[in-house]
Design brief:
With 879 residues, the protein is of the alpha+beta class. The chain has 24 helices and 32 strands. Strands 1, 2, 5, 6, 7, 8, 9, 10 and 11 form a 9-stranded mixed sheet that branches.
């Protein structure tokens, strides 16, 4: 029986038993920030089980996509080494929401397993919670399982809870005895060992209690059922395979890996890389298809760790080039019928995986060399364990997640000095914190400032008007700030990217200027104020005040906010529907919008986005605002939500009909025509996988357009050429200026520059930019710096590596040309990486850095790695 039949037979069986077949939820739980990934079939029904949500159905079944690679449920390190562990799997499940209970769940499970799937009843074993006499009796008396095949286990194995408080209950598991050949020894028995002989295939959870804060349990008024059966495991049993990797789900993919790598798969230890890569590809592909991106944060970092782990296993198979992305097509053809999102998102999945592979492979070889060197030192007796400094270098300079280094160390029977590594990481974080100076308004902690306690949530009335009468609740000074709390206010408190309102507050005998407005976690609005007239003593709790928001400033803000919604919709339409909001700033001066995207947004795409927004502005469409909409209704209508944000039961929707629909608590224009001109002024990278778009609207947008036209006109007049010839004329001037500047400076410096112009060194292409590499014997550092300054001033986008060798020491400079956009390259980080390879140190600014080392024999490797890093950054500027 093939896997597709096994899946469909499960769903058909329970559909016949009155269950509604529910599609799998995304493996990325966008509306549940407490979960990295969906890890069980019940995730999408959690609010139903807790009573927070009600549905029309009382019985459901599904085949849920799951990933267990982080947090409480983490199978990452076991993958490839056991017969059954996977990071990605499908969970078949049937659920009862206060309908049937234990007897039906057990009877149906047994019927499906023994009659429909045809597994011999003599191979089946049952485990129950040792205090659950009801379940034991049902299995023995109602189903007919012999008593010696029903094993009572403790709370650790057979009692399930949703958390420290909430629904919980005993569970019962169905196990298949795979025979003596799978036994781990003479004491092998269910509940005694955890070997592959006793294959757990199905877990039936009987939710009948609610755990109380003190640890006690009370009976639920409507007990429920939550079951889960791993599709890969039941397939392994039904197809009589020794591992899940031999089933038709994964065997073809593993064969394809063998074809690409030239290394035939094996069922033994030498086949571990094939097994790991096949599993990790599935996790990556499904996560990306459902909206996750590799990054350095949270679930994105889990994906990056998974991919780098797969890349390293590919390296063990001799693959020093990207290849994992080439497997996506095979996966889509195998699983695309059941999960069409794999086919729809195949190009995106391939691009993202390829990009991540390239990025890691640039440092993988360096990291593996350093790892092997350290292992050799341990072997000679110099070290007792893999050193923390080396683990930190692999993490910081080569991108090796610490768990990857630990896995590699285990393979050669070593432990990593994890305590030392953690100490080095904390030192790095401390340096980072010390270098950051952030000034924020003191809005009180989540537990409440004593001067704010009891104020309660402020009633916001600013949607209707920018003016209101209010009563003073609190007034105090905090860290040289004066803070006012009112019972109601028209001042918008900073949230959702929209800045807080400013304006004035007047009372009997005093006038206050509102400099900012924020709110704490309790919903209390905190007005940062300055007394401009009267005495502070006049501001007393109970005083009546008149609030007046700066309407001109607010109009600029809301114009930018509504434009942000249009921009978001346009980006998804032009760039791709994988685009998700990662952050925003809506201020009076401009809007800033961060999105998930894996490459540079091309100029022609930005022009199309800008044009699309402008079309909707000119249509002058009236916005529709819906307050108090149930969150489930908002989701069903397709409303966009901020990824990872936690929303209440009822939400506010902002709609531009037929174009944009978002959950939003901000203030907006009444019609799109109020936005006026919108001009995109910047697009760039914020971090890996995140791009930033900045724009101006209204008067600001018109002024920017006018300024650009004036500049073009001025340049055209100054250079005496029509505007269409400006590009060529400026290019000529740049080249002439370069020639003149290269003729200045000291004679030795001119000699070094002449060397470069005469072909000394090497120039590597990187998109529209270049990387210049040159090495001299015993060149003074001062001359290298002068050459670097000359190269910085030369026209064109360029990065360079200038090296001086001599006296068993290497000194070098990494820098960039002045014309290169800020943030494209960080010379200091590149120099630091090169110095690490050379056994030295150094660093510097993003545009210029100096470093050195004494490992002369590793100079070619250091230059190659630094150049690759620069080439990648420069190429990314165009991509």
């Amino acid at each position: 029986m093939r896997v597709a039949q096994i899946r469909s037979q499960f769903l058909e069986f329970f559909a016949t038993a009155g269950h509604e077949v529910v599609p799998s939820s995304p493996v990325v739980p966008h509306d549940d920030p407490t979960l990295l990934f969906a890890n069980a079939g019940m995730n999408q029904f959690k609010s139903v089980f807790t009573g927070e949500e009600s549905r029309d159905v009382t019985r459901a079944c599904s085949s849920q996509k799951c990933i267990r690679a982080g947090g409480k449920h983490n199978d990452l390190e076991n993958v490839g080494y056991t017969a059954r562990h996977l990071t990605f799997f499908e969970m078949l499940g049937n659920f009862s929401f206060g309908d049937y209970f234990k007897e039906e769940a057990c009877v149906w499970a047994w019927e499906l397993i023994t009659e429909k799937y045809g597994i011999d009843a003599d191979r089946m074993w049952i485990s129950v919670y040792h205090e659950d006499d009801d379940a034991r009796a049902i299995w023995a008396d109602r189903v007919g399982v012999s008593a010696d095949r029903i094993v009572g286990l403790g709370e650790k194995d057979n009692f399930w809870s949703m958390g420290d408080v909430g629904p919980c209950g005993p569970c019962s598991e169905l196990h298949v005895d795979r025979g003596e050949q799978a036994s781990c020894g003479p004491n092998c028995a269910l509940g005694v060992c955890d070997c592959d002989r006793w294959m757990e295939i199905w877990n039936l959870v009987f939710m009948q209690f609610e755990k109380q804060p003190g640890g006690g349990r009370i009976a639920l008024p409507r007990p429920s059922i939550d079951t889960g059966m791993g599709l890969e495991r039941i397939t392994m049993v039904l197809q009589e395979k020794d591992t899940v990797f031999e089933t038709d789900l994964l065997a073809g993919l593993i064969e394809r890996i063998g074809e690409l790598t030239g290394v035939a798969p094996s069922s033994g230890p030498e086949g571990t890389p094939h097994r790991v890569i096949s599993d990790h590809l599935r996790s990556l592909s499904f996560a990306i298809a459902d909206g996750a991106f590799p990054s350095n944060e949270e679930r994105g970092y889990v994906l990056r760790r998974i991919l780098r782990r797969a890349s390293r296993y590919g390296y063990k198979l001799g693959m020093e080039r990207p290849f994992i992305h080439q497997l996506v097509g095979h996966l889509a053809s195998e699983m695309g019928e059941a999960f069409p999102e794999l086919i729809e998102r195949q190009p995106l999945i391939e691009k993202l995986i390829h990009s991540e592979e390239e990025q890691f492979l640039r440092t993988l070889k360096t990291g593996m060399t350093r790892f092997d060197d350290e292992v050799a030192r341990v072997a000679t007796g110099d070290l007792q364990q893999f050193p923390s400094t080396a683990a930190f270098f692999l993490h910081d300079s080569c991108g090796f997640p610490i768990d990857l280094t630990e896995q590699m160390a285990r393979e050669v029977e070593l432990d990593v000095d994890r305590q030392g590594f953690d100490h080095l990481m904390e030192e790095q974080r401390s340096r980072s914190r010390a270098g950051s100076k952030v000034i924020t308004m003191n809005s009180g902690s989540s537990s409440g400032d004593a001067r704010i306690d009891g104020a309660g949530a402020t009633d916001f009335v600013g949607y209707q008007s920018g003016q209101a009468e209010a009563t003073v609740s609190r007034f105090f000074s905090s860290d040289d700030q004066q803070v006012l709390v009112l019972d109601r206010t028209p001042f918008y408190a900073e949230s959702g990217g929209q800045v807080g309102d400013t304006g004035t507050i007047e009372g009997q005998g005093f006038q206050l200027e509102v400099l900012d407005c924020q709110k704490n976690s309790e919903g209390t609005f905190l007005h940062l104020v300055r007394v401009v007239d009267g005495e502070v003593s006049e501001v007393q709790p109970g005083s009546t005040v008149h609030c007046n928001v700066d309407s001109d400033r607010r109009q600029h803000v809301i114009r930018n906010h509504t434009a942000t919604h249009l921009l978001h919709a346009a980006l998804r339409q032009v760039v791709g529907d994988h685009v998700q909001q990662k952050g925003s700033l809506v201020s009076p001066e401009r809007l800033r919008f961060d999105i998930s995207h894996y490459e540079k947004i091309q100029p022609e795409q930005l022009a199309e986005v800008e044009q699309l927004v402008q079309e909707w502005v000119l249509r002058d469409v009236e916005l529709k605002i819906y307050d108090g909409i149930p969150i489930e209704e908002a989701k069903s209508r397709g409303a966009m939500a901020l990824f990872g944000e936690k929303y209440g039961d009822r939400v506010r929707l902002v709609e531009v009909p037929d174009f944009s629909l978002e959950l939003c608590g901000g203030i907006h224009c009444q019609r799109t025509g109020e936005i006026g001109p919108m001009v995109i002024v910047h697009e760039g990278s914020v971090s890996s996988g995140v791009r930033r778009v900045e724009a101006l609207t209204g008067v600001g947008g018109a002024s920017r357009t006018r300024a650009d036209e004036d500049l073009i006109h001025e340049l055209s007049s100054l250079l005496r050429v029509p505007r269409e010839d400006l590009h060529d004329r400026i290019g000529t001037l740049v080249r002439e200026n370069r020639s003149l500047k290269d003729g200045k400076g000291s004679t030795p410096t001119r000699s070094l520059l002449s060397d470069l112009d005469a072909g000394h060194g090497e120039t590597r292409s990187a998109g529209s930019a270049e990387v210049v590499i040159a090495t001299w014997q015993d060149a003074p550092q001062e001359q290298l710096l002068q050459v670097a300054d000359a190269l910085k001033r030369r026209g064109g986008d360029r990065a360079f590596i200038l090296v001086s060798t001599g006296n068993d020491e290497i000194r070098f400079i990494v820098g960039t040309s002045e014309s290169l956009p800020s943030g494209t390259v960080h010379a200091g980080q590149v120099a630091k990486m090169g110095a690490g390879i050379l056994g030295g140190g150094g660093g510097g600014r993003p545009d210029m850095a100096q470093a050195g080392g004494k490992a002369v024999d590793r100079l070619p490797e250091a230059i190659d790695q630094m150049s690759r890093s620069l080439e990648d950054s420069l190429a990314g500027k165009d991509s």
